[in-house]
């Protein structure tokens, strides 16, 4: 754009009056002012205004918090008065504290009443053994404050069908699939709640790997519902942001919890078990005869002594936890209970409570291909880091234990917290 010079607008002539000269000057000033303002306005549209400076005040996240309950909680557990340190084991301790408190006050789950408890519904087969987590959840949900008998106030709906009971009664996988499908079809036809979200606010719980396969017979269950399972392998359909990893806990534990005993742990690493997976075969073949790693090809025979297997955990720094027929293993929670730092050797495993707990603060997570360098990796961990891992491990033991009735922060409450986090994304 060309700016017109003042000389182009000059008025000349000796016969001009002073009034004309004054008018000409004023006109010239007006034109120059208009052109200048127009030019500035045009230039300002070409240049973005500076961004405002936003000052973010840092939020202080406390390293500790104390449970302020002065009376027993609704689940019958004794009040917790000791100070718990969370900064080393939680991704966000303050967020966990606040969300957990809100969950306890507001979260409600409706259990469908349909199905004969003497067959495959409503009640667990048992609350012992390596599938105890499924049984405990079925029992705990009825003992807890979270259950509601009014479906209209429910945040989520529990489908109470137990594949562990089916397995115990000798039901074939094919029949399991039919039984699950018929049960869910009956709920859909009888109640309006499924159709509001196509099952997105429904969940089921199964720890047996056959149970996972049985539910896979219904595509809607896999795609829409929240699956709480013990074998959360995200390369075969597990969806971490939707589904929940259920810890496989072998209860009751044979011996008391270990911990705060690092001076007694003189063995570098320990594993004993069946070679029922590729990674276990490699682990046994490479390290079975090693003098620093205690690796046994088979489960320790009871004839060698009373609770010899469990006592090995007390003497070991790092307990090797390779995946078995599935990615999960009850050996992980055994290690946590006995104070032995778990070494996860299982690819595609979404660890329990992984979005809440920082596993790297109390465990060692390796790729399966790292098995060949296992001893050197463990030996390279400084003693100070080992002590830190061990101390943090003691802090999380309560999260991997089931109780009846349930106790605050135990495995049941952590699963409920995971469900609580997921219910917020349900829209209907």
Automatic annotation (TrEMBL):
Residues in Exostosin GT47 domain copies: 103-380
- Which InterPro entries does this one have? Exostosin, Exostosin_GT47
- A molecular-function term among this protein's GO annotations: glycosyltransferase activity
Pull one GO CC term from this UniProt entry: Golgi membrane
Topology relative to the lipid bilayer, per the entry, is: Single-pass type II membrane protein
Major location category of this protein: Golgi
Keyword Nucleus (UniProt): no
Which keywords are on file for this protein? Glycoprotein, Glycosyltransferase, Golgi apparatus, Membrane, Signal-anchor, Transferase, Transmembrane, Transmembrane helix
Q: Would you tell me the protein name for this molecule? A: Exostosin GT47 domain-containing protein
């Amino acid at each position: 754009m060309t700016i017109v010079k003042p000389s182009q607008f000059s008025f000349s002539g000796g016969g001009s009056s002073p009034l004309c000269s004054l008018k000409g000057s004023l006109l010239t000033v007006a034109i120059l002012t208009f052109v200048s303002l127009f030019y500035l306005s045009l230039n300002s549209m070409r240049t973005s205004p500076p961004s405002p400076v936003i000052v973010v005040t840092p939020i202080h996240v406390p390293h500790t918090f104390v449970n302020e309950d002065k009376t027993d909680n609704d689940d019958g557990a004794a009040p917790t008065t000791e100070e718990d340190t969370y900064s080393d084991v939680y991704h966000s301790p303050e967020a966990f504290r606040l969300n957990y408190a809100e969950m306890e006050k507001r979260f409600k789950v409706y259990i469908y009443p349909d199905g004969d408890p003497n067959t495959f519904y409503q009640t667990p087969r048992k609350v012992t053994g390596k599938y105890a987590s499924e049984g405990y959840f079925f029992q705990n949900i009825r003992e807890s404050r979270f259950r509601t008998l009014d479906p209209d106030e429910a945040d989520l709906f529990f489908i109470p069908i137990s594949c562990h009971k089916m397995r115990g009664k000798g039901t074939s996988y094919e029949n399991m699939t039919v039984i699950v499908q018929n049960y869910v079809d009956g709920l859909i036809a009888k109640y309006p709640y499924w159709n509001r979200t196509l099952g997105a606010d429904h969940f089921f719980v199964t720890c047996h790997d056959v149970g996972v396969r049985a539910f896979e017979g219904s595509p809607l269950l896999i795609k829409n519902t929240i699956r709480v399972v013990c074998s959360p392998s995200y390369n075969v359909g597990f969806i971490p942001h939707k589904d929940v990893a259920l810890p496989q806990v072998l209860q009751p534990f044979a011996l008391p919890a270990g911990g705060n005993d690092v001076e007694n742990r003189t063995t570098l690493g320990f594993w004993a078990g069946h070679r029922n997976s590729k990674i276990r075969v490699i682990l046994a073949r490479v390290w079975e005869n090693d003098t620093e790693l205690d690796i046994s090809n088979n489960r320790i025979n009871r004839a060698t002594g009373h609770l010899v297997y469990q006592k090995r955990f007390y003497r070991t720094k790092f307990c090797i936890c390779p995946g078995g027929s599935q990615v999960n293993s009850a050996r992980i929670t055994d290690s946590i209970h006995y104070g032995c730092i778990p070494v996860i050797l299982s690819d595609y495993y979404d660890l329990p409570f992984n979005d809440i707990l920082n596993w790297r603060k109390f465990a060692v997570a390796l790729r399966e291909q790292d098995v060949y360098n296992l001893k050197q990796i463990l030996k390279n961990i400084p003693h100070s880091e080992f002590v830190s891992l061990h101390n943090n491990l003691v802090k999380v033991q309560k999260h991997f234990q089931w109780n009846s009735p349930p106790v605050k922060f135990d495995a049941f409450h952590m699963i409920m917290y995971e469900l609580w986090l997921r219910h917020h994304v349900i829209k209907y």
